[in-house]
Write a structure and sequence with these properties.
Strand content of chain B: under 5%
Radius of gyration of chain A: 19 Å
Largest interface: A-B, 31 and 48 residues
Distance between the termini of chain A: 59 Å
Distance between the termini of chain B: 53 Å
Shape of chain B: globular
Shape of chain A: rod-shaped
CATH class of chain B: Mainly Alpha
Structural class of chain B: mainly alpha
Oligomer: heterodimer
Number of strands of chain B: 0
Order of helices and strands of chain A: HH
CATH topology of chain B: Sodium/glucose cotransporter
Chain lengths: ~45, ~525
């Protein structure tokens, strides 16, 4: 791919793909964090 | 010297100073929390971009380009970890640290450590180590700024250095954290546009990425491998792991970066900030390394690899675009330098001066002590950068390896491990800093083929676990800290009882919290 050896192509494109998936997973599993939003208002 | 290049730089400086002035008018410098944490009102996009532009320093335009030029695609190991550094940092400690720092009433990343691991020794050691290492890191930014500006504009190095230092000082003094956060926001956009422009120009010049890679393969096929020029790093997984770790998990140990968590508007800001950080990194992070690799073909006779990006910009781009790229490079340097100076000044004033020298210091005194120290550090940095400048890559790898090794377990365990106690944290910081430092200066990288960052992090983590477990009976984590830790882990509002706890034990911090809460009520 793009004239690169396979392992180099994996390094160049594989890691970004991993981080994209990580970010999506992070957003999915933390949907309930919105409940923290009221925190500032509830402390007297 | 091109008039167009200078016009762009002047325009850039005017905008940056304008943002600093706006932050000052907004009242960011009125009290200590406003000055140091922007009143904890920084939203997701500015949080992500200040996090990233602070992390991505002049190293990206000098060190990264130079590494790509010297080692080819092996350099991308650093980028592979770096792309996820922002989201990893925000997802692992962002939300919990935001909540815990508010419960503790901590205003600096070092003060936060003392509140979590209660002992003056923690604050003294962490404060002095951080001021020392961030001072080095500032030095790298000053050298990068002076070298770059001198080359592109033709201004003599001492004058170019003085201009960069002067601008950074002015707007750091003007608005504190808020000025830094919002100028970082603007600068990160300039950095992205500038670096994308130059990478597109470089690849186009060579007829596309495939053609460029084929040409590199004809020159030296090992430059396309994942093991570096002449396969110099073949099988050295310890070095590869360190390259991956230093800019991924390493950020979680950098006090000037984790402060960004404490300034977020609310804990959930970490979610969207994580998304923005990844998006920005995907485009920005690999680009300087790629330009360095392309420079192998564009500038075959280049003497100083660290100047690869500047030279490519000067050779391929028209003057107007070179001005924009130069502004981007200065943005990368200055957005890191201002944060470093602010953090160094605030840690030295609050964590050392107020804590150990003058406990009754007023907020105005503190702000002025911080500004005085910022000025002193900038002057010392200027003199060193002028007299005997070391390489930017060398300083950055040294400072970031020691910082990450010393503080990573302390910050991560602070919110994730209930048994992490004061002796464990102190021993971990000392072990991480020492091992990482000795590893670099005793030449152990060559003999062991292990990166100093990897050696340092493993040492500090193992030390944290062993010492914490061994001293649980002698030095248990106090109940009020465990209570605060539980509240930071739980999803939901911070229980009201913590405001009273702060009032009892944290007199001046409680006042700062109260101001924030009043502001929150007005906005809410």
């Amino acid at each position: 791919m793009f004239g690169l050896p396979i392992e180099t192509a994996l390094l160049v494109f594989g890691f970004p793909l991993f981080w994209i998936l990580y970010t999506i997973m992070f957003l999915v599993v933390t949907r309930d964090w919105a409940r923290d939003s009221a925190a500032d208002d509830e402390v007297p | 010297m091109s008039g167009t290049v200078i016009s762009f730089l002047v325009l850039y400086y005017v905008v940056v100073l304008g943002i600093g002035y706006w932050a000052m008018r907004r009242g960011a410098g009125e009290d200590l929390e406003g000055y140091l944490l922007g009143g904890r009102q920084v939203g997701p996009l500015p949080t992500a971009l200040t996090l990233q532009s602070t992390s991505m320093s002049g190293y990206m335009f000098l060190g990264a380009g130079g590494l790509g030029f010297a080692q080819g695609y092996w350099a991308l190991w650093y980028a592979a970890g770096d792309i996820g550094g922002g989201v990893l940092n925000l997802s692992v400690i962002g939300r919990r640290m935001r909540k815990l720092s508010q419960i503790f009433g901590a205003l600096t990343a070092i003060e936060y450590l003392e509140k979590r691991y209660p002992s003056p020794a923690i604050r003294l050691f962490a404060g002095i180590l951080t001021v020392f290492l961030l001072g080095f890191y500032v030095l790298a930014q000053l050298i990068a700024g002076g070298k770059g500006m001198a080359l592109v504009t033709g201004i003599p190095y001492p004058a170019a250095l003085a201009i960069a230092v002067g601008i950074i000082l002015i707007y750091t003094f003007m608005g504190g954290y808020l000025a830094v956060a919002y100028t970082d926001f603007f600068q990160s956009l300039i950095m992205l546009v500038g670096v994308m422009w130059i990478v597109i120009a470089a690849v186009s010049e060579l007829g596309g990425l495939t053609a460029a890679n084929n040409a590199i393969a004809e020159l030296d096929p090992t430059l396309l491998s994942i093991w570096g020029k002449d396969l110099g790093f073949q099988g050295q997984w310890g070095v590869v792991a360190g390259a991956l770790l230093i800019f991924s998990i390493g950020y979680m140990g950098w006090p000037h970066v984790v402060t960004r968590h404490m300034a977020m508007t609310k804990p959930a800001t970490a979610r969207r900030a994580g998304l923005w950080a990844t998006l920005w990194n995907l485009f920005f992070v690999p680009a300087p390394y790629l330009v360095g690799i392309m420079a192998i073909l564009i500038l075959p006779g280049l003497d100083d690899p660290e100047m690869a990006i500047f030279e490519v910009a000067g050779k391929l781009l028209p003057a107007a675009v070179t001005g924009l790229v130069m502004a981007a490079i200065m943005a990368a340097i200055m957005s890191t330098a201002d944060s470093l100076l602010l953090q160094t000044g605030s840690i030295a004033s609050r964590d050392i001066y107020e804590r150990f020298i003058n406990p009754k210091a007023s907020e105005t005194q503190m702000v002025w002590v911080s500004r005085g120290l910022v000025f002193a550090i900038a002057v010392i940095g200027y003199v060193v950068a002028l007299v005997e400048p070391p390489t930017v890559f060398g300083i950055v790898i040294f400072a970031t390896s020691v910082l990450g090794s010393a503080f990573l377990p302390a910050y991560v365990c602070a919110v994730w491990w209930r048994k992490a106690n004061t002796p464990g944290a102190l021993a971990s910081m000392i072990a991480g800093a020492l091992v990482s430092f000795v590893w670099q200066y005793a030449g152990l990288v060559e003999t062991t083929q292990v990166h100093p960052m990897l050696a340092g992090v493993v040492s500090s983590t193992v030390t944290m676990v062993i010492v914490s477990l061994a001293t649980q009976k002698m030095s248990p984590v106090p109940p009020h800290i465990l209570d605060a830790l539980d509240a930071s882990v739980a999803v939901g509002p911070i229980p009201g009882r913590f405001a009273e706890a702060s009032d009892l034990s944290l007199a001046n911090e409680a006042a700062a919290i109260e101001k924030t809460l009043d502001r929150g009520d007005r906005h809410g």
